[in-house]
Amino acid sequence: MICLGNICRSPTAHGVLEKLIQNKDLSEFIEVDSAGTSNYHIGDHPDPRSIAAAQRRGYSLDKQVARQVRANDFEEFDYILAMDVDNLHHLESAAPSGCKAKLQLLLSFSNEATESVPDPYFGDAGQGFEVVLDLVEDACRCLLEKLQRELSTTKTEQ
Ligand code: 4NP
């Protein structure tokens, strides 16, 4: 899960998907991580407003620590999912040609028409963080359904 700072949107998506995976007892099969395209917040915990909004819906983000996207991510992960179009473009220009990871928008898995998760960082403490959670929860549920279908196909092939 990728955004600009790795302190608001991508940690939220990381925490939400991780919890959905735990609820379905799939943690041994699916790994989630998050990073930022910028170096602005390396080493920081998520924004307190993101932690609080996520906590109210039962997700824990407080153990996460921000990092920047690294070259190895493009080989290590199957999917690298950007929170918005700018960050997707950044990933596309940083990716080695023929890399393993599929680069997509997280919201391409969503039922919503919106392409990008709006950046809540410069807004006030309230609504922006709830919008992030609404969009991310919907997309992560759809994404996990797809990953489960892929896992069952892989298992049948083995
Ligand atoms: P994020 O939000 O990309 O969702 O983590 C931001 C966090 C920090 C900044 C911008 C966006 N910043 O400019 O420091």
Short description:
By secondary structure, this protein is mainly alpha-helical. It contains five helices and four strands, in the order E-H-E-H-H-E-H-E-H.
Structure overview:
- The two termini are 28 Å apart.
- This protein has one domain (2-157): Rossmann fold.
- The protein is mainly alpha-helical.
- The strands form 2 sheets. The protein has a two-stranded parallel ribbon with strand order 1-2. Strands 3-4 form a two-stranded parallel sheet.
- The chain has helices at residues 9-23, 48-56, 73-76, 85-94, 127-157; strands at residues 2-3, 35-36, 79-82, 102-105.
- It binds 4-nitrophenyl phosphate (4NP).
- 4-nitrophenyl phosphate is lined by residues 3-9, 40-41, 119, 121.
Give descriptors for this structure.
158 residues; mainly alpha; Rossmann fold; two-stranded parallel sheet; two-stranded parallel ribbon; globular; binds 4-nitrophenyl phosphate
CATH superfamily assignment?
A: Response regulator
What pattern of helices and strands is seen along the backbone?
Answer: EHEHHEHEH
Helix fraction by DSSP (H/I, runs of at least 4) = 40-55%
* Secondary structure: number of strands: 4
User: What low-confidence regions span 5 or more consecutive residues with pLDDT below 50?
Assistant: none
General form: globular
CATH topology call: Rossmann fold
| Count of discrete domains | 1
CATH architecture: 3-Layer(aba) Sandwich
What topology, given as strand order, has the largest sheet? 1-2
First-residue to last-residue Cα separation: 28 Å
Question: What is the number of helices?
Answer: 5
Query: What is the level 1 CATH name?
Result: Alpha Beta
Structural class: mainly alpha
* Main sheet attributes: strand count, strand direction, barrel closure: 2 strands, parallel
Radius of gyration, taken over Cα atoms and rounded to an integer in Å: 15 Å
The proportion of strand residues reads: 5-15%
